[in-house]
Amino acid sequence: MTATPEGLSDRATVLAQYPPAAEQLDLAEIADFVVAEPAHRRVAQVRAEARRSGRVLLEPLAGFGGVKQHTDALTVLRDKGTADILPTQVDSQTRNLKFDEVATMLAEHGDGPLPLNGYPIVNHPLTVTRDLVSTVDRPIELRIGSTDPRLAAEMAFAAGISSITAGPLYYLVHYSSAVTVEQSVANWGYVFSLASWYARQGAPVGLQVHGLGNSTPFPASLLGAGAVLECLIAAARGCRHFAVDSRLMGNLRQDVASLRAIRDAVEHYLAQAGVDDAVVTMVRKTWAGRYPADEARAFGLISYTAVSGMLSGADEFISNSVQEGVGIPDPEANAASLRAIRHVVDLLGPQPELTREDEGVEREYALITAELHAIVDAVLDLGEGNPGRGSARALELGVLDVPFAASRTCRGEVVTARDSEGAVRFVDFGRLPIPDWCRKFHSDAMERRLARTAKSVYDVVVSDIFSISNGPLVEVAE
Protein backbone atom coordinates (compact mmCIF):
# COMPACT_ATOMS: atom_id res chain seq x y z
CA MET A 1 0.00 0.00 0.00
CA THR A 2 3.04 2.29 0.16
CA ALA A 3 3.61 2.31 -3.61
CA THR A 4 1.97 5.07 -5.64
CA PRO A 5 -1.11 3.63 -7.37
CA GLU A 6 -1.24 3.60 -11.16
CA GLY A 7 -2.21 6.96 -12.64
CA LEU A 8 -1.57 8.87 -9.40
CA SER A 9 2.07 9.88 -9.86
CA ASP A 10 1.10 13.49 -9.07
CA ARG A 11 -0.46 12.56 -5.73
CA ALA A 12 2.17 14.36 -3.64
CA THR A 13 1.55 17.54 -5.62
CA VAL A 14 -2.21 17.19 -5.23
CA LEU A 15 -2.00 16.63 -1.47
CA ALA A 16 0.29 19.63 -1.14
CA GLN A 17 -2.59 21.88 -2.24
CA TYR A 18 -3.83 21.77 1.36
CA PRO A 19 -1.58 19.96 3.86
CA PRO A 20 -4.21 19.63 6.65
CA ALA A 21 -6.25 17.46 4.26
CA ALA A 22 -3.21 15.50 3.15
CA GLU A 23 -2.49 14.39 6.70
CA GLN A 24 -5.80 12.50 6.77
CA LEU A 25 -5.43 10.64 3.46
CA ASP A 26 -3.57 7.41 4.20
CA LEU A 27 -4.29 4.87 1.47
CA ALA A 28 -3.90 1.84 3.73
CA GLU A 29 -6.45 3.19 6.23
CA ILE A 30 -8.77 4.28 3.41
CA ALA A 31 -8.70 0.82 1.81
CA ASP A 32 -9.76 -0.77 5.10
CA PHE A 33 -12.52 1.80 5.56
CA VAL A 34 -14.13 1.70 2.12
CA VAL A 35 -14.23 -2.06 1.82
CA ALA A 36 -16.32 -2.13 5.02
CA GLU A 37 -18.83 0.43 3.72
CA PRO A 38 -22.27 -1.15 3.08
CA ALA A 39 -23.31 -1.70 -0.54
CA HIS A 40 -26.50 0.33 -0.12
CA ARG A 41 -24.34 3.46 0.30
CA ARG A 42 -22.44 2.92 -2.97
CA VAL A 43 -23.93 4.95 -5.80
CA ALA A 44 -22.58 2.75 -8.58
CA GLN A 45 -24.09 -0.39 -7.10
CA VAL A 46 -27.41 1.28 -6.35
CA ARG A 47 -27.66 2.51 -9.95
CA ALA A 48 -26.72 -0.89 -11.37
CA GLU A 49 -29.27 -2.70 -9.22
CA ALA A 50 -31.99 -0.17 -10.05
CA ARG A 51 -31.25 -0.66 -13.76
CA ARG A 52 -31.65 -4.41 -13.36
CA SER A 53 -34.87 -4.14 -11.36
CA GLY A 54 -36.46 -1.28 -13.31
CA ARG A 55 -36.67 1.03 -10.30
CA VAL A 56 -36.38 4.70 -11.26
CA LEU A 57 -34.08 6.71 -8.99
CA LEU A 58 -34.40 10.31 -7.80
CA GLU A 59 -31.62 12.71 -6.85
CA PRO A 60 -32.02 16.38 -5.88
CA LEU A 61 -29.48 19.20 -5.94
CA ALA A 62 -28.26 20.67 -2.64
CA GLY A 63 -25.20 21.77 -0.71
CA PHE A 64 -24.68 23.78 2.48
CA GLY A 65 -21.49 24.95 4.14
CA GLY A 66 -22.07 23.92 7.74
CA VAL A 67 -22.01 20.24 8.65
CA LYS A 68 -25.22 20.34 10.69
CA GLN A 69 -26.95 22.51 8.10
CA HIS A 70 -25.99 20.12 5.31
CA THR A 71 -26.86 17.01 7.33
CA ASP A 72 -30.28 18.44 8.21
CA ALA A 73 -30.96 19.28 4.56
CA LEU A 74 -30.02 15.80 3.37
CA THR A 75 -32.20 14.27 6.07
CA VAL A 76 -35.19 16.26 4.81
CA LEU A 77 -34.49 15.18 1.23
CA ARG A 78 -34.20 11.56 2.34
CA ASP A 79 -37.28 11.47 4.55
CA LYS A 80 -39.65 13.92 2.88
CA GLY A 81 -38.32 13.84 -0.68
CA THR A 82 -37.82 10.06 -0.93
CA ALA A 83 -34.42 10.70 -2.54
CA ASP A 84 -32.56 7.53 -3.53
CA ILE A 85 -29.23 9.32 -4.02
CA LEU A 86 -28.29 12.39 -2.02
CA PRO A 87 -26.18 15.27 -3.34
CA THR A 88 -23.28 17.15 -1.88
CA GLN A 89 -22.75 20.27 -3.95
CA VAL A 90 -19.28 21.73 -3.43
CA ASP A 91 -18.88 25.46 -2.78
CA SER A 92 -17.23 27.80 -5.27
CA GLN A 93 -14.26 28.54 -2.99
CA THR A 94 -13.36 24.85 -2.93
CA ARG A 95 -13.93 24.56 -6.66
CA ASN A 96 -11.35 27.31 -7.14
CA LEU A 97 -8.86 25.78 -4.65
CA LYS A 98 -9.20 28.62 -2.13
CA PHE A 99 -8.84 26.32 0.85
CA ASP A 100 -7.13 28.86 3.12
CA GLU A 101 -10.05 31.27 2.69
CA VAL A 102 -12.48 28.53 3.68
CA ALA A 103 -10.32 27.74 6.72
CA THR A 104 -10.65 31.36 7.82
CA MET A 105 -14.44 31.17 7.50
CA LEU A 106 -14.54 27.95 9.53
CA ALA A 107 -12.46 29.57 12.26
CA GLU A 108 -14.82 32.57 12.37
CA HIS A 109 -18.13 30.68 12.29
CA GLY A 110 -17.33 27.50 14.19
CA ASP A 111 -20.06 24.87 13.96
CA GLY A 112 -22.72 27.27 12.68
CA PRO A 113 -23.91 27.94 9.14
CA LEU A 114 -21.23 29.12 6.75
CA PRO A 115 -21.58 31.85 4.10
CA LEU A 116 -20.80 29.36 1.34
CA ASN A 117 -22.82 28.08 -1.60
CA GLY A 118 -21.95 24.46 -0.96
CA TYR A 119 -20.14 21.95 1.23
CA PRO A 120 -16.38 22.59 1.65
CA ILE A 121 -15.36 18.95 1.38
CA VAL A 122 -11.60 19.61 1.60
CA ASN A 123 -11.74 21.71 4.76
CA HIS A 124 -14.18 19.70 6.85
CA PRO A 125 -12.33 16.91 8.68
CA LEU A 126 -12.51 13.49 7.07
CA THR A 127 -14.03 11.95 10.19
CA VAL A 128 -16.78 14.59 10.20
CA THR A 129 -17.80 13.88 6.62
CA ARG A 130 -17.68 10.14 7.31
CA ASP A 131 -20.09 10.70 10.19
CA LEU A 132 -22.36 12.68 7.85
CA VAL A 133 -22.39 9.84 5.31
CA SER A 134 -23.17 7.32 8.04
CA THR A 135 -25.90 9.50 9.57
CA VAL A 136 -27.92 10.02 6.39
CA ASP A 137 -27.25 6.39 5.36
CA ARG A 138 -27.88 6.92 1.66
CA PRO A 139 -25.50 6.88 -1.28
CA ILE A 140 -24.06 10.36 -1.84
CA GLU A 141 -22.78 11.96 -5.02
CA LEU A 142 -20.29 14.82 -5.01
CA ARG A 143 -21.36 17.59 -7.39
CA ILE A 144 -18.37 19.71 -8.32
CA GLY A 145 -17.97 22.24 -11.10
CA SER A 146 -14.20 22.40 -11.41
CA THR A 147 -11.38 21.74 -13.83
CA ASP A 148 -9.23 20.66 -10.85
CA PRO A 149 -11.33 18.46 -8.56
CA ARG A 150 -8.43 16.21 -7.52
CA LEU A 151 -8.12 17.01 -3.82
CA ALA A 152 -11.88 17.29 -3.40
CA ALA A 153 -12.26 13.83 -4.93
CA GLU A 154 -9.57 12.46 -2.61
CA MET A 155 -11.44 13.72 0.45
CA ALA A 156 -14.88 12.72 -0.81
CA PHE A 157 -14.05 9.15 -1.82
CA ALA A 158 -12.13 8.59 1.42
CA ALA A 159 -15.22 9.71 3.36
CA GLY A 160 -17.53 7.21 1.64
CA ILE A 161 -19.01 9.63 -0.92
CA SER A 162 -19.11 7.16 -3.77
CA SER A 163 -19.79 9.11 -6.96
CA ILE A 164 -18.80 12.37 -8.61
CA THR A 165 -20.16 14.51 -11.41
CA ALA A 166 -17.78 14.62 -14.36
CA GLY A 167 -15.93 15.72 -16.36
CA PRO A 168 -13.06 17.39 -18.20
CA LEU A 169 -14.94 18.85 -21.18
CA TYR A 170 -18.14 20.06 -19.54
CA TYR A 171 -16.46 21.83 -16.66
CA LEU A 172 -13.86 23.33 -18.97
CA VAL A 173 -16.17 24.95 -21.51
CA HIS A 174 -18.75 26.15 -18.97
CA TYR A 175 -16.78 26.89 -15.81
CA SER A 176 -13.37 28.13 -16.87
CA SER A 177 -12.24 30.84 -19.25
CA ALA A 178 -8.52 30.12 -19.40
CA VAL A 179 -7.65 26.51 -18.44
CA THR A 180 -6.42 24.43 -21.37
CA VAL A 181 -8.13 21.27 -22.54
CA GLU A 182 -4.97 19.30 -21.88
CA GLN A 183 -4.80 20.45 -18.25
CA SER A 184 -8.46 19.75 -17.57
CA VAL A 185 -8.16 16.27 -19.11
CA ALA A 186 -5.03 15.58 -17.04
CA ASN A 187 -6.67 16.74 -13.79
CA TRP A 188 -9.77 14.67 -14.43
CA GLY A 189 -7.58 11.77 -15.51
CA TYR A 190 -6.20 11.77 -11.97
CA VAL A 191 -9.74 11.56 -10.58
CA PHE A 192 -10.61 8.72 -12.94
CA SER A 193 -7.46 6.82 -11.92
CA LEU A 194 -8.33 7.40 -8.27
CA ALA A 195 -11.83 6.04 -8.88
CA SER A 196 -10.29 2.97 -10.50
CA TRP A 197 -8.06 2.43 -7.46
CA TYR A 198 -11.19 2.40 -5.28
CA ALA A 199 -12.81 -0.13 -7.60
CA ARG A 200 -9.78 -2.40 -7.18
CA GLN A 201 -10.30 -2.19 -3.40
CA GLY A 202 -13.87 -3.47 -3.89
CA ALA A 203 -15.57 -0.06 -3.67
CA PRO A 204 -16.58 1.06 -7.20
CA VAL A 205 -17.03 4.78 -7.76
CA GLY A 206 -19.76 6.14 -10.01
CA LEU A 207 -19.45 8.95 -12.53
CA GLN A 208 -22.36 11.19 -13.46
CA VAL A 209 -21.27 12.31 -16.92
CA HIS A 210 -22.46 15.68 -18.19
CA GLY A 211 -21.17 15.69 -21.76
CA LEU A 212 -21.48 19.13 -23.32
CA GLY A 213 -24.49 21.22 -22.41
CA ASN A 214 -25.55 24.48 -20.89
CA SER A 215 -28.60 26.43 -19.79
CA THR A 216 -29.76 27.31 -23.30
CA PRO A 217 -31.54 25.38 -26.07
CA PHE A 218 -28.77 22.86 -26.70
CA PRO A 219 -28.45 20.24 -29.46
CA ALA A 220 -28.67 16.65 -28.21
CA SER A 221 -26.01 15.59 -30.69
CA LEU A 222 -23.44 17.92 -29.09
CA LEU A 223 -24.51 16.89 -25.58
CA GLY A 224 -24.20 13.24 -26.52
CA ALA A 225 -20.89 13.65 -28.33
CA GLY A 226 -19.41 15.24 -25.23
CA ALA A 227 -20.79 12.42 -23.07
CA VAL A 228 -19.28 9.77 -25.34
CA LEU A 229 -15.87 11.46 -25.27
CA GLU A 230 -15.90 11.91 -21.49
CA CYS A 231 -16.89 8.27 -20.99
CA LEU A 232 -14.07 7.16 -23.29
CA ILE A 233 -11.54 9.34 -21.44
CA ALA A 234 -12.67 7.86 -18.10
CA ALA A 235 -12.88 4.29 -19.39
CA ALA A 236 -9.25 4.48 -20.56
CA ARG A 237 -8.35 5.02 -16.88
CA GLY A 238 -10.41 2.04 -15.79
CA CYS A 239 -13.78 3.57 -14.88
CA ARG A 240 -16.82 1.45 -15.65
CA HIS A 241 -19.89 3.04 -14.03
CA PHE A 242 -21.48 5.86 -16.03
CA ALA A 243 -24.74 7.71 -15.38
CA VAL A 244 -25.11 9.87 -18.49
CA ASP A 245 -27.02 13.13 -18.88
CA SER A 246 -29.92 13.64 -21.24
CA ARG A 247 -31.33 17.09 -20.58
CA LEU A 248 -34.85 18.37 -20.96
CA MET A 249 -35.12 20.82 -23.87
CA GLY A 250 -38.89 21.06 -24.17
CA ASN A 251 -39.99 19.30 -27.36
CA LEU A 252 -41.35 15.92 -26.27
CA ARG A 253 -40.41 13.93 -29.35
CA GLN A 254 -36.89 15.32 -29.36
CA ASP A 255 -36.46 14.78 -25.62
CA VAL A 256 -37.58 11.16 -25.89
CA ALA A 257 -35.30 10.51 -28.87
CA SER A 258 -32.29 12.22 -27.31
CA LEU A 259 -32.14 9.96 -24.26
CA ARG A 260 -32.35 6.83 -26.39
CA ALA A 261 -29.83 8.08 -28.95
CA ILE A 262 -27.28 9.11 -26.31
CA ARG A 263 -27.60 5.80 -24.45
CA ASP A 264 -27.06 3.83 -27.66
CA ALA A 265 -24.11 5.99 -28.71
CA VAL A 266 -22.31 5.70 -25.37
CA GLU A 267 -22.73 1.92 -25.36
CA HIS A 268 -21.62 1.71 -29.01
CA TYR A 269 -18.40 3.66 -28.58
CA LEU A 270 -17.47 1.96 -25.31
CA ALA A 271 -17.88 -1.42 -27.01
CA GLN A 272 -15.87 -0.17 -29.99
CA ALA A 273 -13.08 0.75 -27.53
CA GLY A 274 -13.12 -2.78 -26.16
CA VAL A 275 -14.96 -1.93 -22.94
CA ASP A 276 -17.47 -4.73 -22.52
CA ASP A 277 -18.08 -4.50 -18.77
CA ALA A 278 -19.40 -0.96 -18.42
CA VAL A 279 -22.68 -0.16 -16.68
CA VAL A 280 -24.45 2.72 -18.45
CA THR A 281 -27.55 4.31 -16.98
CA MET A 282 -29.41 7.35 -18.27
CA VAL A 283 -30.33 10.46 -16.32
CA ARG A 284 -33.06 12.88 -17.33
CA LYS A 285 -31.98 16.23 -15.93
CA THR A 286 -34.59 18.89 -15.36
CA TRP A 287 -34.28 22.16 -17.27
CA ALA A 288 -30.99 23.81 -16.32
CA GLY A 289 -31.92 27.38 -17.27
CA ARG A 290 -34.11 29.99 -15.67
CA TYR A 291 -37.21 28.73 -13.87
CA PRO A 292 -40.62 30.36 -13.61
CA ALA A 293 -40.94 32.54 -10.52
CA ASP A 294 -44.50 31.25 -10.12
CA GLU A 295 -44.14 28.06 -8.08
CA ALA A 296 -47.21 26.45 -9.64
CA ARG A 297 -45.73 26.84 -13.12
CA ALA A 298 -42.39 25.53 -11.84
CA PHE A 299 -44.17 22.38 -10.61
CA GLY A 300 -45.62 22.04 -14.10
CA LEU A 301 -42.15 22.22 -15.64
CA ILE A 302 -40.72 19.63 -13.25
CA SER A 303 -43.65 17.29 -13.80
CA TYR A 304 -43.27 17.66 -17.56
CA THR A 305 -39.63 16.61 -17.15
CA ALA A 306 -40.81 13.47 -15.40
CA VAL A 307 -43.24 12.64 -18.20
CA SER A 308 -40.57 13.07 -20.88
CA GLY A 309 -38.12 10.94 -18.94
CA MET A 310 -40.54 8.10 -18.31
CA LEU A 311 -41.51 8.00 -21.98
CA SER A 312 -37.79 7.84 -22.82
CA GLY A 313 -36.91 4.99 -20.49
CA ALA A 314 -34.85 7.11 -18.07
CA ASP A 315 -33.20 5.29 -15.19
CA GLU A 316 -32.93 8.34 -12.96
CA PHE A 317 -34.08 11.93 -12.53
CA ILE A 318 -31.86 14.69 -11.18
CA SER A 319 -34.09 17.56 -10.25
CA ASN A 320 -33.92 21.24 -9.54
CA SER A 321 -36.33 22.79 -7.07
CA VAL A 322 -39.50 24.71 -7.82
CA GLN A 323 -37.87 27.63 -6.00
CA GLU A 324 -35.04 27.97 -8.56
CA GLY A 325 -36.70 31.02 -10.08
CA VAL A 326 -36.80 33.05 -6.85
CA GLY A 327 -33.57 32.27 -4.99
CA ILE A 328 -31.68 29.55 -3.16
CA PRO A 329 -34.15 26.69 -2.59
CA ASP A 330 -34.88 25.49 0.91
CA PRO A 331 -34.85 21.73 1.65
CA GLU A 332 -38.64 21.52 2.08
CA ALA A 333 -39.29 22.92 -1.41
CA ASN A 334 -36.62 20.64 -2.80
CA ALA A 335 -38.32 17.66 -1.20
CA ALA A 336 -41.71 18.73 -2.58
CA SER A 337 -40.19 18.87 -6.06
CA LEU A 338 -38.96 15.29 -5.69
CA ARG A 339 -42.39 14.13 -4.52
CA ALA A 340 -43.97 15.64 -7.62
CA ILE A 341 -41.60 13.68 -9.83
CA ARG A 342 -42.10 10.52 -7.78
CA HIS A 343 -45.85 10.71 -8.30
CA VAL A 344 -45.45 10.96 -12.08
CA VAL A 345 -42.96 8.08 -12.02
CA ASP A 346 -45.43 5.95 -10.07
CA LEU A 347 -48.25 6.77 -12.50
CA LEU A 348 -46.28 6.05 -15.65
CA GLY A 349 -44.13 3.21 -14.30
CA PRO A 350 -46.47 0.33 -15.21
CA GLN A 351 -47.21 1.72 -18.67
CA PRO A 352 -45.25 0.79 -21.80
CA GLU A 353 -43.12 3.35 -23.60
CA LEU A 354 -45.96 4.96 -25.50
CA THR A 355 -43.79 6.70 -28.10
CA ARG A 356 -41.74 3.70 -29.28
CA GLU A 357 -43.31 3.59 -32.78
CA ASP A 358 -43.82 7.33 -33.15
CA GLU A 359 -42.57 8.52 -36.55
CA GLY A 360 -41.45 11.88 -35.18
CA VAL A 361 -39.42 10.26 -32.43
CA GLU A 362 -37.73 7.92 -34.88
CA ARG A 363 -36.89 10.85 -37.17
CA GLU A 364 -35.30 12.78 -34.30
CA TYR A 365 -33.43 9.65 -33.19
CA ALA A 366 -31.95 9.20 -36.67
CA LEU A 367 -31.00 12.88 -36.87
CA ILE A 368 -29.32 12.96 -33.44
CA THR A 369 -27.51 9.67 -34.07
CA ALA A 370 -26.12 10.74 -37.44
CA GLU A 371 -24.85 14.07 -36.09
CA LEU A 372 -23.45 12.58 -32.89
CA HIS A 373 -21.52 9.84 -34.72
CA ALA A 374 -20.15 12.31 -37.27
CA ILE A 375 -18.82 14.56 -34.49
CA VAL A 376 -17.32 11.78 -32.36
CA ASP A 377 -15.72 10.05 -35.35
CA ALA A 378 -14.13 13.33 -36.44
CA VAL A 379 -12.79 13.98 -32.92
CA LEU A 380 -11.33 10.48 -32.63
CA ASP A 381 -9.71 10.85 -36.04
CA LEU A 382 -8.08 14.11 -34.94
CA GLY A 383 -6.70 12.38 -31.84
CA GLU A 384 -5.70 9.21 -33.68
CA GLY A 385 -8.01 7.29 -31.39
CA ASN A 386 -7.18 9.26 -28.23
CA PRO A 387 -10.38 11.04 -27.08
CA GLY A 388 -8.61 13.57 -24.85
CA ARG A 389 -6.08 14.59 -27.47
CA GLY A 390 -8.78 14.63 -30.13
CA SER A 391 -11.05 16.83 -28.01
CA ALA A 392 -8.28 19.41 -27.58
CA ARG A 393 -7.67 19.58 -31.30
CA ALA A 394 -11.40 19.56 -32.10
CA LEU A 395 -12.15 22.49 -29.81
CA GLU A 396 -9.29 24.41 -31.40
CA LEU A 397 -10.63 23.75 -34.91
CA GLY A 398 -14.33 24.10 -34.10
CA VAL A 399 -15.09 20.42 -34.77
CA LEU A 400 -16.38 20.56 -31.18
CA ASP A 401 -18.05 23.83 -30.27
CA VAL A 402 -20.60 25.17 -27.80
CA PRO A 403 -23.01 28.10 -28.09
CA PHE A 404 -22.51 30.76 -25.42
CA ALA A 405 -19.45 29.01 -23.97
CA ALA A 406 -17.51 30.60 -21.10
CA SER A 407 -14.18 29.17 -22.20
CA ARG A 408 -11.83 30.79 -24.67
CA THR A 409 -10.97 27.30 -25.90
CA CYS A 410 -14.28 27.31 -27.79
CA ARG A 411 -14.75 29.18 -31.01
CA GLY A 412 -18.36 29.96 -30.08
CA GLU A 413 -19.48 29.92 -33.70
CA VAL A 414 -22.44 27.57 -33.21
CA VAL A 415 -25.85 29.20 -32.82
CA THR A 416 -29.09 27.45 -31.90
CA ALA A 417 -32.80 28.26 -31.65
CA ARG A 418 -36.14 26.49 -31.71
CA ASP A 419 -38.16 25.49 -34.75
CA SER A 420 -41.92 26.05 -35.02
CA GLU A 421 -42.58 22.98 -32.82
CA GLY A 422 -40.10 24.00 -30.15
CA ALA A 423 -37.38 21.50 -31.10
CA VAL A 424 -33.79 22.70 -30.86
CA ARG A 425 -32.16 23.35 -34.25
CA PHE A 426 -28.87 24.74 -35.50
CA VAL A 427 -29.07 28.26 -36.89
CA ASP A 428 -25.33 28.32 -37.56
CA PHE A 429 -23.37 25.05 -37.68
CA GLY A 430 -20.02 26.75 -37.21
CA ARG A 431 -17.40 24.19 -38.22
CA LEU A 432 -19.19 21.12 -36.87
CA PRO A 433 -18.96 18.10 -39.22
CA ILE A 434 -22.73 17.75 -39.57
CA PRO A 435 -23.90 15.55 -42.50
CA ASP A 436 -25.48 17.40 -45.43
CA TRP A 437 -28.92 15.83 -45.02
CA CYS A 438 -28.99 16.88 -41.36
CA ARG A 439 -27.99 20.43 -42.26
CA LYS A 440 -30.86 20.63 -44.74
CA PHE A 441 -33.32 19.35 -42.14
CA HIS A 442 -32.27 22.02 -39.64
CA SER A 443 -32.27 24.81 -42.21
CA ASP A 444 -35.70 23.87 -43.53
CA ALA A 445 -37.11 23.71 -39.99
CA MET A 446 -35.74 27.15 -39.12
CA GLU A 447 -37.03 28.65 -42.38
CA ARG A 448 -40.54 27.54 -41.40
CA ARG A 449 -40.12 29.08 -37.94
CA LEU A 450 -38.78 32.39 -39.25
CA ALA A 451 -41.52 32.60 -41.88
CA ARG A 452 -44.17 32.83 -39.15
CA THR A 453 -42.60 35.55 -37.04
CA ALA A 454 -41.66 39.16 -37.47
CA LYS A 455 -38.66 38.71 -35.18
CA SER A 456 -35.11 38.82 -36.46
CA VAL A 457 -32.95 35.71 -36.17
CA TYR A 458 -31.13 37.42 -33.29
CA ASP A 459 -34.37 38.09 -31.41
CA VAL A 460 -35.54 34.52 -31.96
CA VAL A 461 -32.26 33.13 -30.56
CA VAL A 462 -32.47 35.35 -27.46
CA SER A 463 -36.18 34.80 -26.76
CA ASP A 464 -35.78 31.02 -27.09
CA ILE A 465 -33.26 30.97 -24.24
CA PHE A 466 -36.03 32.04 -21.86
CA SER A 467 -39.07 30.43 -23.49
CA ILE A 468 -39.27 27.47 -21.10
CA SER A 469 -39.43 29.90 -18.19
CA ASN A 470 -41.65 32.49 -19.84
CA GLY A 471 -43.85 30.25 -21.97
CA PRO A 472 -44.97 29.31 -24.52
CA LEU A 473 -42.15 27.22 -25.96
CA VAL A 474 -42.52 29.10 -29.25
CA GLU A 475 -44.87 31.90 -30.21
CA VAL A 476 -48.35 30.74 -31.23
CA ALA A 477 -48.70 33.24 -34.05
CA GLU A 478 -47.36 36.63 -34.99
As a percent range, the share of strand residues is: 5-15%
Q: What is the helical fraction, as a range of percent?
A: 40-55%
Bulk shape? globular
Low-confidence stretches: none
Question: How many DSSP H or I helices?
Answer: 20
Query: Structural class of the helices, strands and pairings?
Result: alpha/beta
Order of helices and strands: HHHHEHEHHHEHEHHEHEHEHEHHHEEHHH
- Biggest pleated-sheet summary: 8 strands, parallel
- What value does the average pLDDT take? 94
Total beta strands: 10
Oligomeric form of this entry?
single chain
Strand order of the largest sheet: 1-8-7-6-5-4-3-2
First-residue to last-residue Cα separation: 69 Å
- Alpha-carbon Rg, integer: 22 Å
Characterization of this structure:
With 478 residues, the protein is an alpha/beta fold. It has an eight-stranded parallel β-sheet. The protein has a two-stranded antiparallel sheet with strand order 9-10. Helix 13 links the parallel strand 6 and strand 7. Helix 8 crosses helix 9, helix 12 packs parallel to helix 13 and helix 16 packs across helix 17. The radius of gyration is 22 Å and the shape is globular.
